Inverse folding.
């Protein structure tokens, strides 16, 4: 291994060398570095296949080699994978070099493993051995074993604590964690609404992320968080980005939270955010011709075929909205040319659904897919009697609650629903909205009012630390957010009867199990997201029986 001499460095010298925004929270960096160098940011694994899994770490060869600095010597890192935690049965090992070109992060795609098997892994460099991580390979084709995921999304460091990560790290029954986006947030302290909700802490850098160094610093700051480190060390993760890994409401050529006049070229910023994400997460690169391709497909035995979608790189600009990306009156969302996925990804998904032999076809989906409308629609069975031209106009929702999600892309959503309707076992797993939902997916939105025909089901996980709009309103005007939540629940009863469960206040996570007879989702919700020691407890369980395409209440939590 290479030896690196560690020279003393003062706080003033370090700050001057790094420049504005390129250092972690310096008050805690010396302690973090001193306690765990060179493996300051922990270990992780991800993208499990039956015979492969990616293992990850970040090496800090010297105190000045903080994330985003470009500093630090190239360092040889040894790695080992064992069938036991004591490493008496090492089955794979090797070395890799960490250098500044990838911010000293290390990705090893370990092969030659056995399906559905627990492994332990570790790294060593500069005479130090990392903490031990635990991972698991996917089941091979032919396996009928149930598959169980932890499902998370939306971890705004400034707005709360990662209590759901702490809880999931203690579970020993999970095959993987699905992270559905917003792993980090780009905002300056306070975010879009100033200091509401009240920030219990602030992520470095203390300004909005714009450059590659900014995003690297942000990822490094998040990975100093103990609950996140423990989660990664406990389970393999399958992750995709949403918008905040770059900027709020990202689309193909820009974002709501990007001003080219003051924040520079969009493509440069977007590439920076994506590159930092791919460097700092244990993700397998699947396309040598497209370094940023993140939509991918993983199989877990005969139970689960998993499509992880990219709903940001290829989407067209969403319709204009009334408030903060929410609410729209009119029919621009029915533009037949509007796209969330792009044509190639839509074809990849639709053709894959049609050909899949798995019992459950699962979509790792960033933003809500199920319809959310304001005011009840006229049933399609009635409008259809008025002739095709008038019926087409009346079939459009009068007012939509959201348009930045799939409700702003009605034509493409309907094409995907049509593809879902041709097969059994489609389950959409979703994040983004910071609320909990269990919903059926109507084959035709206005037809469902009378025929109750569903094409699939959707389970939505709340934010890990990001509060809902209702919660933020409660912080400004106590009780008003709870009233808004009651109004939205009433609207679901009247206008969105496919929604079977909704909880709009608390943060948390889901555990979802796919078994031969049914899929079940359990919600675990946090009592107080602004308290790092808050309790988290089971709140609800909903299921869909195999072949039913319906959502019903489960009798008890998974054990």
């Amino acid at each position: 291994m290479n030896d690196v001499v560690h020279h003393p460095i003062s706080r003033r010298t370090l700050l001057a060398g790094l420049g504005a925004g390129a250092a972690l929270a310096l008050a805690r960096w010396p302690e973090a570095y001193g306690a765990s160098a060179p493996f300051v940011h922990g270990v992780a694994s991800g993208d499990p296949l039956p015979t492969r899994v990616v293992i990850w770490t970040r090496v800090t060869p010297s105190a000045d080699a903080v994330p985003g600095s470009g500093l630090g010597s190239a360092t040889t890192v040894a790695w080992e994978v064992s069938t036991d935690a004591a490493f008496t049965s090492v089955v794979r090992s090797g070395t890799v070099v960490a250098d500044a070109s990838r911010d000293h992060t290390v990705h090893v795609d370990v092969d030659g493993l056995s399906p559905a098997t627990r492994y332990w892994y570790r790294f060593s460099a500069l005479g130090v051995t990392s903490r031990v991580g635990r991972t698991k390979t996917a089941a091979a084709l032919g396996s009928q074993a149930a598959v169980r995921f932890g499902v998370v999304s939306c971890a705004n460091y400034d707005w709360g604590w990662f209590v759901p990560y702490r809880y999931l790290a203690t579970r020993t029954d999970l095959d993987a964690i699905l992270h559905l986006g917003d792993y980090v947030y780009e905002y300056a302290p306070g975010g879009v609404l100033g200091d509401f909700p009240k920030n219990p802490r602030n992520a470095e850098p203390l300004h909005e992320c714009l450059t590659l160094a900014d995003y690297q610093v942000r990822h490094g700051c998040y990975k100093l968080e103990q609950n996140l480190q423990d989660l990664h060390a406990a389970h393999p993760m399958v992750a995709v980005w949403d918008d905040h890994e770059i900027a709020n409401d990202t689309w193909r050529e820009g974002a709501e939270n990007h001003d080219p006049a003051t924040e520079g070229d969009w493509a440069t910023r977007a590439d920076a955010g994506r590159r930092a994400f791919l460097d700092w997460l244990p993700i397998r690169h699947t396309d040598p011709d497209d370094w940023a391709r993140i939509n991918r497909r993983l199989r877990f035995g005969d139970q689960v075929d998993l499509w992880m979608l990219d709903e940001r790189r290829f989407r067209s600009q969403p319709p204009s909205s009334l408030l903060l990306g929410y609410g729209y009156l009119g029919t621009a969302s029915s533009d037949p040319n509007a796209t969330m996925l792009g044509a190639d990804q839509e074809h990849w998904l639709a053709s894959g659904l049609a050909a899949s032999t798995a019992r459950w076809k699962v979509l790792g989906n960033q933003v809500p897919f199920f319809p959310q409308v304001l005011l009840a629609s006229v049933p399609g069975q009635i409008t259809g009697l008025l002739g095709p031209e008038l019926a087409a106009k009346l079939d459009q929702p009068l007012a939509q609650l959201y348009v930045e999600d799939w409700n702003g892309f009605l034509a493409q959503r309907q094409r995907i629903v049509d593809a879902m309707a041709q097969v059994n076992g489609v389950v959409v797993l979703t994040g983004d909205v910071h609320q909990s939902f269990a919903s059926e997916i109507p084959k035709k939105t206005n037809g469902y009012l009378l025929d109750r025909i569903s094409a699939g089901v959707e389970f939505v996980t709340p934010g890990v630390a990001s509060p809902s709009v209702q919660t933020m309103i409660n912080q400004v005007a106590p009780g008003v957010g709870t009233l808004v939540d009651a109004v939205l629940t009433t609207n679901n009863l009247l206008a969105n009867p496919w929604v079977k469960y909704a909880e709009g206040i608390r943060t948390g996570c889901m555990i979802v199990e796919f078994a031969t007879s049914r899929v079940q989702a359990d919600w675990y919700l946090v009592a107080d997201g602004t308290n790092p020691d808050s309790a988290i407890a089971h709140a609800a369980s909903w299921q869909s029986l195999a072949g039913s395409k319906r959502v019903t209440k489960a009798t008890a939590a998974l054990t």
